[in-house]
């Protein structure tokens, strides 16, 4: 099953949940699809503030989508592997004008008028969500003292949790590329490790501290 198809299904599932929250004056107006789209994307952005949104979305996909496939286990594995990266990407890129224009719901002029995204210099669109995904996995261990070597190992383990193929390879390449920057540090814990994760996000170019 194509990973791209599942990424689209995940996005549609999240968009559907957001659309259900759109106030009735918007959702009832078929003449204002652009406005409805923007409201839905804003609500989707609000949903991204929920730290458990990826778990909620993954469960919804497994229960409502994967249950209809013959290869349910493979479907579930793909959903669980792709959801964190998709959610992290949306947390950075959930801009109503850009997304709705890009989908053709709003006039293209609205997209052209936008200031270039602050991370447009990134040559590979998959790098940012992968970096954010790795950082989020490392944050789960924020209370455990680790060395920089442990950070690299934990990052590679996070990459290994992704489905085989382009995303796992890109994630592994990213960790190997920046591995040299993680060498030579003493063990850190608590607030010090939080600062390390903030620095990692800055290095990703995906989020500001």
TrEMBL record:
SUPFAM superfamilies: Saposin. PROSITE patterns: SAP_B (PS50015). The keyword Transport does not apply. It comes from the Eukaryota. Residues 30-110, 124-209 form the Saposin B-type domain. Gene3D superfamilies: Saposin-like. Residues 1-20 form the signal peptide. Keywords: Disulfide bond, Signal. This is Saposin B-type domain-containing protein.
